[in-house]
């Protein structure tokens, strides 16, 4: 049986979830409309700047060392030997169409630190991308690194995909006095999709199916030694032992997986109460009794656009819809400024934590296609800021330079840059928050136009690059794709700047400018036409009166 965990663990895990909050979905070849495998990732951090990392392919002399810095903080952790040749990496995808994403689940607090460890989760991702060609190779690289150099982070779920397979791997360190980590990796069955969002999701797993499940040799015995599990091996659940679900894990984390699944599959209503954090009282952990499956089959095969839309959600149309309660204000704003929880009269309440959130640094949909040569087949559809209002630009995995708008060093969280996509997209969203219900319609329309053009153009770009690859050279194909990705990303950013200018003119000062035939309207003498002043909806005025009584009441002077 699984041993009961203290309330201290739940408090620490709950706090951890509030700090680290990302969302991944995993799409197998058989579940996609074009036979591509896909993973998504939203890097949600209040301090992470939206930029596209690039590591060129390189040869290294014997004895060369690599510095390891913690991805979250930049802290120097140590050095490991470099290998003879490393692959080119664009963002979270390498030149062989391997892609890796993650979400932090924290897990047992006593396993969060490990003296002498130097491999944090971010370094595992980016080192593996430089050293592995396939998902299975990446799993081998990552687990070997933590065995040799220790694991510096807390519990993590990893999405790992190549052009043929998609895997989820969950890992947690062994704590002080130990070295390395315990972990389980499972291949998502073809035709199915999975997801994770800061809550460990692997429960029981097959012990004799190395084609579809890999795990550390001590993942069960380590738990037994610690006194956390004493049942039969076949009943061992990774999540229930190392990171059980609590209210925060269900409401703030699993709810996001449920929301994404709900967009593409019927029958998810049976997990609504679980996603809302509602369980019957009694027992050790009722949250484990109605858990969502690790993978589901979508109602139809998913396009890249479908997967992008899975990443755009505020629980619309559900009981958790963030546009419907009074916290959304008069303009249906589906965002709540932190903290995630708050108290009234000593009673604790919470805001929802949706897939789309204001603090996203960058996000992507990584698409791997076996039908094309690797430098052409892999596309990292990359966007910055909030997933709901971003545009995903096609960054082919074979490109050799990063567009200026996404380039590392083009601004940062404390330095504004007019050529930075991150700052340009943030200008639009932060202005749109003021009158969200109306302005977001312009944002979504522009987004649909730009992304639609990208997708319509992709087959022609693929064909042209393939012809260059086969008839000229792979280098010529890469040059072509680099030029294309560069132009499209920078042009997209310029269009977004124009969108900001339009919104500023149209909605400044709470007024709404009139338009006619696609132009702002002027009167017969050339002056701006008098703008509309729509005010607030009636229900908002009612709420004000109920809250303030007669404070704003206009007095009838004739009665005196």
Separate helix tally: 13
Mind describing the biggest β-sheet? 7 strands, antiparallel
- List how many beta strands DSSP finds: 23
| Distance from first to last alpha carbon | 78 Å
Supply database-style keywords.
disordered N terminus; Peptidase_C69; seven-stranded antiparallel beta sheet; hydrolase; dipeptidase; 31% helix; dipeptidase activity; 18% strand; signal; 560 residues
Textual characterization of the structure:
It is a single chain. The protein is of the alpha+beta class. It has helices at residues 7-19, 121-131, 135-149, 221-226, 238-242, 247-264, 272-275, 304-310, 374-377, 421-432, 436-471, 474-507, 538-548; strands at residues 24-27, 37-44, 54-55, 58-59, 65-69, 76-81, 85-86, 89-90, 93-94, 99-106, 155-161, 166-173, 181-187, 193-196, 213-215, 295-296, 341-344, 347-350, 360-368, 379-384, 393-396, 515-516, 519-520. The chain has a domain at 363-510. The strands form 7 sheets. It has a 7-stranded antiparallel beta sheet. Strands 10-11-12-13-15 form a 5-stranded antiparallel beta sheet. It starts with 6 loop residues before the first helix and ends in a 12-residue tail after the last helix. The model is unreliable at 1-19 (pLDDT under 50).
